[in-house]
Design goal:
Oligomer: heterodimer
Number of helices of chain A: 3
Radius of gyration of chain A: 23 Å
CATH architecture of one domain in chain B: Alpha-Beta Complex
Distance between the termini of chain B: 19 Å
Largest sheet of chain B: 11 strands, mixed
Strand order of the largest sheet of chain A: 1-2
Strand content of chain A: under 5%
Helix content of chain A: 25-40%
Structural class of chain A: mainly alpha
Strand content of chain B: 5-15%
Strand order of the largest sheet of chain B: 1-3-2-4-6-5-10-11-9-7-8
Chain lengths: ~100, ~475
Amino acid sequence: MSLSLDEVRHIAKLSRLELADGELDATLAKLNGIFGLIEEMQAVDTDGVEPMSHPQELAQRLRADVVGETDRRAAYQAIAPQTEAGLYLVPKVIE
Amino acid sequence: MIDSSLKDIAAALRAKTVSAVELATESLARIEAGNPRINAFVTVDRDGALAAARAADTRIAAGDAGPLTGIPLAHKDVFCTEGVLTTCGSKMLANFVSPYDAHVVSLLKNAGAVMVGKTNMDEFAMGSSNESSHFGPTRNPWNTTKVPGGSSGGSAAAVAARMVPIATGSDTGGSVRQPASLCGITGIKPTYGTVSRFGMIAYASSLDQGGAFARTAEDCAQLLSAMTGHDPRDSTSLERSYDHYGADLARPLAGLRIGLPKEFFAEGMSDDVRLAVEAALAEYRKLGATTVEVSLPNARLAIPAYYVIAPAEASSNLSRFDGVRYGHRAAEYTDLNDMYCKSRSQGFGAEVQRRILVGTYVLSHGYYDAYYIKAQKLRRLIAQDFAAALEQCDVIAGPTNPTVAYGIGEKSSDPVQMYLGDIYTVAVNLAGLPGLSHPAGFGKDGLPVGLQLIGNYFTEARLLNTAHQFQQATDWHSRAPVF
């Protein structure tokens, strides 16, 4: 299989990545190389095989719904690009 | 003194023939002298190290020292360290100072180990050569025109260059074993779920596992034992008790059955690596082990399956880098979406962007079953292969890398060639098994060759025992590079 330039533009958009027009062809060629490698998977019959997501077949642990963390908002916001009055600032979304 | 074993350093500390401050000073001096050539460290924390060393000396004086108290160590820059830069090798996090410590970091802090700095790595641990770091490539101390391996290449190079006796790493597809092999040291990745991933910046969560580097298996056992344990903050951390991994080191190898996967000894391995690996196996036979051929018929599918699962999980994990809460934000943008796109495109390097694109594609509507589910089915077949092979032997052995360290720049323009270097290591992560690499000799141009040992779940102590016995009979691990 091979991707088209439009597909690369589409997945870049889904990924919130901006690819410059000049990079598109090189990116496409490299992605197609990678997908060429990945395609080797399809040669194997996996009918009836159960997908494996965790080697120990562990179920997600549940915990009691109690407060375990202290309020560290100031420490967390100190590393944010832009904050004001305890809020994270982003460009205006609704006029 | 930092060239000695951890046991000897700890004894000297207790006997007061050396202080933790002296050890830290020695380590910092070696970093200062060697790092301009090796680029193993992104951050050196001189003040923090000396303060931690003084605290360690106080503990030692009070008789409250453990085996790692006062020992200098380096953390891979994938582990969050409160108050000290954590970059993950990326421009995205070039100014990121974590508000908390990773679980591994706090365990080692509590053990009294003295962190001297944070080591260079492939960006977001995505790479096999350390060339994708935003902070420039790390160089192999055995030959500074060669790569150290990756993604924990900075940690491996720092230990190989005798800047620190021990260092942490993380291994998603071989990122501890592979650089350990190329740098001529010992590295272990334990069973998935053994070391907490809390505060270890996520790449592919179902595969990521913390690991340990040292010159010897004995020292790896000491470090890994201090990193292990259940952590409720990591939902995949296993609730079980752990014995000290060094408990079994003295066990003789007589009767040990070593399985040799015929697929690992087929074509693909270079002649110099084959020669060193065969010689190491002959040494194991001399020590009383027997070798038996085993088969991992789906091993060749490990790379395609890995390069679906890892990018898929990465594309999801790295969606958190949006320029809002932490990390790089573009200086100029037109609206919120443009801010996301520009911040991410500027903050991530080419290999990270490629893996996000691959991951986004394989998870997108209509392709999920054909790629992600298919890869997870292959993952089960690969795990079943290992289970069958481990019925016939106690440990599996083979090469860690198909070749010795290659030149910086040699493979960086062709991602597929780079990925194929992971052929012997990725299957272990897919199955979640423990794996270790130890020095096995030297190949072309005097560069180190590693031997990989793979064991069943929770057999870390057996792997370390096996490597330790080999290291009692050989001296490959004590050879030091001149750089």
